[in-house]
């Protein structure tokens, strides 16, 4: 394995390729000896990788070992090219990696050495069997629980960080309890994560709150104290909430559902605005000035994306159905339905505006990630809208500053996206220069709110496009009056402009 040399927080240059062994014993402020915590995190994805990097950064006295089944992912975490793009993450990892932060595939060793184990594996929507299309798939969480039970050799605190339905902590406890050996004991805590992609480091460093859910027993309470002690390294006590495990798990699902509901609410209003000639930005601004409502998460768009809002809404719908609460299930299902409606509506508007056909027309698509400042395309509205346009026979030139070419190709030609991958593949062109992407196109379609899209030279772009040239701003980020003046036929969400005849 390649050795990496990095300058560490103590100013020393060091090489490393594997986790250090043998932990020192530290003294706290009162000089009392205290064993340094040895933390392991199973799952080196967005959540495990970034949250544990910040944990290592904020807790130099804690040894953090992040493990994953994927060799490629771990190789990337140990390289100069991290597997995820997050502003500020590179700096944090560079400072701690090889000191008190380690990435490896040696899950058994990490679990054995740890006294606290975070489970941060994926919990996607089930694609098969009971609950297909709605329930959270807990197979990866179960594998972790069984692995911990198999290799644990002492007392362990198991912290459920993945987003899970409300019974998950019980089933983890059940598996662990059925496998205890002499000298081995387990406490299971719920500690859901609230970071948002693109702002993960800021969210982890200054969280609105940290939830620690546990059992109401002396063992549960002391486990909660242990985890509270870790977070206390950088988070004030009043931002750390201790609660029951079920409340903690439900709070996570409810928080995502509330956020998704706000986006769907303003998007539903945007359709009304388009129909009556109102402006959704003005409505959102005025509604948000009510301090009881607040201004955040009222930005109308092509719909919400990302790996969690839809998944967690569907999980909540499934839970409500399982609890025989069909009205509750329908309520949350509608939040998701509006999101699909909003995406489809925008795709249809593009086709309708381009004289009811996009067949063989070239369109430049700006942005493929589900939001700015991330390279993540999971459930991105861009995937859905591009697929819609490709099905209509459009040729699309895609530019995104962070999403890899192969990722875009996979997303649009997978069996989930199309039944005709060969035909679709020929219609897609990926660009690394937005000015090249627009040449000879009929329209520009903005699908992610990257800041750089605001400052492009649209006059220059217009000069190389087919006329009449169209601009569809699905994120409401550019100066519409300015591009209309240039001569673009402009469309956006929640507002209608007079057709441009320049
Ligand atoms: N992505 C996000 O912004 C947020 C995600 N969450 C939740 O956190 C959880 C993880 O999400 P992400 O980090 O986005 O997922 P991810 O897909 O980026 O990462 C999960 C990682 O777990 C690894 N893994 C799966 N099974 C494993 C096993 N048995 N042993 C070792 N490694 C294993 C996978 O190889 C993968 O690298 C999910 O439940 C998600 O709902 C919560 C808050 C934010
Ligand atoms: O559980 C999770 O995975 C995370 O889900 C969201 O974080 P994330 O999906 O990374 O990003 P958000 O900023 O919430 O945006 C989600 C989607 O909604 C869209 N959005 C957001 C806000 C808005 O006003 N309008 C709007 O269309 C975004 O463009 C994006 O597509 C939550 O914000 C996090 O608290 C949570 O931890």
Automatic annotation (TrEMBL):
Pfam families: UDPG_MGDP_dh, UDPG_MGDP_dh_C, UDPG_MGDP_dh_N. One of its GO terms (molecular function) is NAD binding. The keyword Oxidoreductase applies. It comes from the Eukaryota. Residues 1-20 are annotated as: Disordered. Residues 1-19 have a biased composition (Basic and acidic residues). Coiled coil: none annotated. GO terms for cellular component: nucleus. Pathway: Nucleotide-sugar biosynthesis; UDP-alpha-D-glucuronate biosynthesis; UDP-alpha-D-glucuronate from UDP-alpha-D-glucose: step 1/1. GO terms for biological process: glycosaminoglycan biosynthetic process. Keywords: NAD, Oxidoreductase. Belongs to the UDP-glucose/GDP-mannose dehydrogenase family. Involved in the biosynthesis of glycosaminoglycans; hyaluronan, chondroitin sulfate, and heparan sulfate. This is UDP-glucose 6-dehydrogenase. It comes from Petrolisthes manimaculis.
């Amino acid at each position: 394995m390649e050795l990496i040399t990095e300058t560490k927080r103590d100013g020393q240059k060091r090489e490393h390729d594997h986790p250090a062994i043998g932990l020192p014993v530290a003294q706290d402020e009162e000089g009392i000896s205290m064993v340094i915590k040895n933390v392991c995190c199973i799952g080196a994805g967005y959540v495990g990788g970034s949250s544990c990097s910040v944990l290592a950064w904020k807790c130099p006295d804690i040894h953090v070992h992040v493990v994953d089944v994927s060799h490629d992912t771990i190789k990337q975490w140990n390289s100069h090219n991290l597997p995820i793009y997050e502003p500020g993450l590179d700096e944090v990892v560079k400072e701690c990696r090889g000191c008190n932060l380690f990435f490896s595939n040696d899950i058994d060793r990490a679990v054995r050495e740890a006294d606290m184990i975070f489970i941060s594996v994926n919990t996607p929507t089930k694609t098969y069997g009971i609950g297909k299309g709605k329930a959270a798939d807990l197979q990866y969480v179960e594998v972790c629980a069984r692995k911990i039970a198999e290799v644990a050799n002492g007392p362990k605190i198991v912290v459920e960080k993945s987003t899970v339905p409300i019974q998950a902590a019980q089933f983890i406890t059940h598996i662990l309890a059925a496998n205890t050996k002499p000298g081995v004991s387990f406490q299971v805590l719920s500690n859901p994560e609230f970071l948002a992609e693109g702002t993960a480091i800021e969210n982890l460093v200054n969280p609105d709150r940290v939830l620690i859910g546990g059992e109401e027993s002396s063992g549960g309470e002391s486990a909660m104290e242990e985890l509270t002690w870790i977070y206390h390294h950088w988070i004030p006590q009043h931002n750390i909430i201790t609660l029951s495990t079920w409340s903690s798990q439900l709070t996570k699902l409810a928080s995502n559902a509330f956020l998704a509901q706000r986006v769907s609410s303003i998007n539903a209003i945007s359709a009304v605005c388009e129909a009556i000639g109102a402006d959704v930005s003005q409505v959102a601004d005025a509604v948000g000035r009510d301090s009881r409502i607040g201004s955040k998460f009222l930005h109308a768009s092509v719909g919400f994306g990302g790996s969690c809002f839809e998944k967690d809404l569907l999980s909540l719908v499934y839970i409500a159905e399982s609890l025989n609460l069909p009205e509750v299930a329908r309520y949350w299902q509608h939040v998701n339905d509006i999101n699909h409606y909003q995406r489809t509506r925008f795709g249809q508007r593009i086709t309708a505006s381009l004289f009811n056909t996009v067949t063989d027309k070239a369109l430049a698509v700006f942005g493929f990630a589900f939001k700015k400042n991330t390279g993540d395309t999971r459930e991105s509205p861009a995937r859905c809208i591009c697929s819609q346009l490709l099905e209509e026979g459009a040729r699309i030139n895609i530019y995104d500053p962070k999403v890899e070419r192969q990722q875009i190709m996979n997303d649009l030609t997978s069996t989930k996206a199309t039944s005709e991958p060969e035909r679709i593949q020929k219609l897609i062109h990926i660009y690394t220069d937005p000015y090249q992407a627009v040449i000879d196109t009929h329209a520009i379609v903005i699908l992610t709110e990257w800041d750089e899209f605001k400052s492009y030279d649209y006059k220059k772009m217009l000069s190389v496009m087919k006329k009449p040239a169209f601009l569809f701003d699905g994120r409401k980020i550019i100066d519409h009056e300015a591009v209309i003046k240039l001569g673009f036929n402009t469309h956006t969400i929640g507002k209608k402009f007079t057709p441009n005849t320049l």
